[in-house]
Amino acid sequence: MRLARARQPDARHAPKMLLEIVLLFLAGVFGGVLNSVAGGGSFITFPALMAVGVAPIIANATNTFASCAGYVSGVFALRRELAAHRAELPRLVVVSLIGGIAGAWLLLQTPEAVFREAIPWLLLFATVLFIYGGQINLRLRALAGSHRHASHAGAILLTGLLLAVSVYGGFFNAGLGIITLSYLALAGHTNINAMNGLKLLVSTAVSLIAIVLFIAKGAIAWYEGSIVLAGTLVGGYVAAHVSRRLPQQHVRRFVIVASIAITAYFFYATYFAANAVAG
Predict the structure, then answer these.
(1) Which of 40, 100, 206, 253 has a CA that sits 20 to 30 A from residue 216's CA?
(2) Is residue 176 pLDDT above 90, yes or no?
(3) Number of H helices, E strands in the chain
(4) Using CA atoms, how far apart are residues 88 and 27, in angstroms rounded to an integer?
(5) Predicted TM-score (pTM) of this structure
(6) Quick check: is 96 in a domain?
(7) Counting beta carbons within 10 angstroms of the beta carbon of residue 159, is it exposed (0 to 12), middle (13 to 18) or buried (19 or more)?
(8) Are 82 and 240 in contact (CB under 8 A)?
(9) Is residue 7 part of a domain?
(10) Are 204 and 71 in contact (CB under 8 A)?
(11) Which of 233, 245, 273 has the alpha carbon at shortest distance from 73?
C-alpha cells in the first residue's frame, strides 16, 4: 500500500505552526484525560491530526502512536489496581499483542472508506455491551453453574472476544477503550478503577505492537504525532489519579454518556454529514 506523506513543518508560517502546536498539544491533553477515565480520547486527537493537514490513513496510525503515551502513563498510575489481577495479565497481554499486529496489518491493506463506514456500528455494539455487560455476565455465570462445560466454553469465547477487540484496536484506535471496557464487563469485572487499569494495559499492548508495523511501513507523522504524544502523557497520568478518587457509579455514568455521544457523532459524520455534502 502506498501511503501519502505527512506535511513537513515550514518555518515561513511560524504563527500558523504555533497555533497548530497548541491545538495538537491541547487535543493530546484532553484525549489523554478521556482515555484514562473512560476511553474515546482518539475522537479528539484523530480529528485534530486531520485538521492540521495529516492524511487520514497516516493520521490514524499517528494517533495510535500518540495515544500510546497516555496508555503507558495510565498503566503506571494504576499499577496497584493491576497488581490485584496479576494472574490474568499474561493472557491479556499475549492476546492483545496478537490481535494488535493483525489489526494494524489489516489497516494498511484496507481502503479508508471501508473502516470509516464500520466505525459507528462497532461503537454502537460497544456502548450496548458496556451498559448491559453486567447483566449478560450474570446470565453466563448461571449457565456455567447448570452446565459442566459451560465455564470452559465461556473462557474460550471471552478469549476470542478479546482477540477481536485487539484486532479492532490495531485497525482503528478510536473507541478501543470503550470496547475493552465492554469486554471486561462481560468477563465479570465490576470495579471500575481496576477495569480502567486493565483497559489501559490492553490498549498499551495493542498500540505498541501496531506502532512497530506502522514504523516499518513509514505510516507515522513524527512531527505532529510527537506534539500530541506529549499532551497525552500529561493528560493520561493526571486523569488516572483523579479517576481513582471518583465514586465508581459516577465514573460508569460518565463512560456511558461519553460512549453514547461518541457513537451519535460518528453516525452523524458517516451518514448524515456526508450525505449533506454530497447533496
Answers:
(1) 40
(2) no
(3) 12, 0
(4) 33
(5) 0.75
(6) yes
(7) middle
(8) no
(9) no
(10) yes
(11) 233
- In this predicted structure, the answer to whether residue 25 has a pLDDT above a threshold of 90 is yes
Q: How far, CA to CA in Å, does 195 sit from each of 9, 24, 35, 179, 227? A: 39, 28, 12, 12, 28
Number of CB atoms found within 10 A of residue 260's CB: 16
Number of structural domains in the chain: 1
What single letter denotes the amino acid at residue 22?
V
Q: CB–CB of 52/23 below 8 Å?
A: yes
Buried/exposed code over 90-116 (b: 16+ C-beta within 10 A; e: otherwise): eebbebbbbbbbbbbbbbbeeeeeebb
CA distance 201 to 78: 10
Residue pair 38/259 in contact (Cβ under 8 Å)? The answer is: yes
Do residues 248 and 193 touch, judged by C-beta distance below 8 A?
yes
Residue 220 has a pLDDT of 95
Q: Which amino acid is at 81?
A: E
* 186: amino acid identity, one letter: L
* Residue 150, domain member (yes or no): yes
SS3 for 96-129 is HHHHHHHHHHHHHHCCHHHHHHHHHHHHHHHHHH
Q: Is 189 helix (H, G, I), strand (E, B) or coil?
A: coil
Q: Assign 137 to helix, strand or coil.
A: helix
C-alpha cell at 3: 501511503
Residue 53 pLDDT greater than 80, yes or no: yes
- Whole-number Å distance between alpha carbons of 146 and 103: 37
- Stronger pLDDT, 279 or 151, i.e. the higher one: 151
Structure-model confidence comparison of residues 200 and 244, the more confident one: 200
Question: What domain range includes position 169?
Answer: 12-273
